[in-house]
Amino acid sequence: MVTAGFIVLALLIVLAALAWVLRPLWRQSPRFVLAAIALLGLATGSLYLLVGHPDALRPAPARAQVPQDIDQAIAELRAALKRDPTQVEGWMLLGRALLGQEKYAEASAAFGQAVRLQPDHPEVLVSAAQARMLAAGNRLDATALAWLQQALRIQPEHQRARWFLGVAQRQAGQPAEAAATWEPLLARVDAATAASLLPQINAARADAGQPPLAMPADAAPRAPLVVEVALAPGWRARLPGDTAVFIIARVPGGPPMPVAVEKHRLDELPLRVELDDGDSPMPTAKLSALAEVEVLARVSPSGNAIPQEGDTSSAPLRVKLPATEPVQLTLGE
Q1: Cα separation of 303 and 244, whole Å?
Q2: pTM for this entry
């Protein structure tokens, strides 16, 4: 059974993680930030294992009262977004919270606002299309279909976009197109998922008068992203060997929250790591769904996953996926 102490620690760690993401919004709307923290804090404690040092966290005291339940947090978000409707993150958080309450029409409206503000972000587009589908009784209309197509133009390997587009094509009586849309997924998902996906592809192919596919011999997740981290010659950080080193992959030009991250010790350098979907702190953001990432390493004397004053980072590198060669990072240059 999860203890109350663990829950408190998990909430504190989520609070620290969100501090970096929501920091620019604090001056504009503290109540918005607190509502957002409460929503995700109530939803997950998964960053506990990632950060690993709860004693090092010292969240700043909030001036306003943090919402105590999901309904109050949603009310706070609605009020904040009424005052400032330009916050994409706020509309996304509101949409996800409403989906969790099965308020699909309201969720669809929230995600629609996010699309209007950021129409070129694949995750925004796919989330909005999914909510619109649920609100319409699991039917994808022309608007949702256009959003999925736009998401795939931006990020052709986005798995959820490809899956929902195939669903739309199947509903529209286009089995050959649906099968062709789904088939690339077989090479990108794990064997168990491929085994459940293949019968649906073959059913679509049968309806299109096409022969069935056999399971690809190489049906497996994409190869991990290999990262090699070294210290620059002559770098004198004078830090203890157990100082935390984070190896991070994130969306280029996107939010600072990583899509994959591993934590190591300074005395392990030089080291070689393999980043994959198992290193994702958020289940909705997978490394395998990206065509390009930004990779960096960061030495954190505080041990926090959130960047702090006094940290040392390598120069971030943009890498196209799947990468054929290890990514070389150097700390202290």
Answers
A1: 5
A2: 0.50
